[in-house]
Amino acid sequence: FRTDRALQSYDGPTLLMHGENDTIVPCEHSRALAKIARRGTLITNDRGHNDFGADWKWYIDTVEAFLRDQGIVVTPKE
Known about the structure:
By secondary structure, the protein is of the alpha+beta class.
């Protein structure tokens, strides 16, 4: 997939998540994509390729925070 080409013309927010210990796809790939993305955010953790989402609470909280920060999801007022 040529994600680099797609990101060059995409103006929306982009969340990239990658494990620093990924031995299948180097984290450098996501770092390069984050530089290409106009509104890119890169989040890394100390996981690998197949265990990145092992801490589901962290994963969900991270995605939710990104969506809130970008104004995509608004937290209802209590």
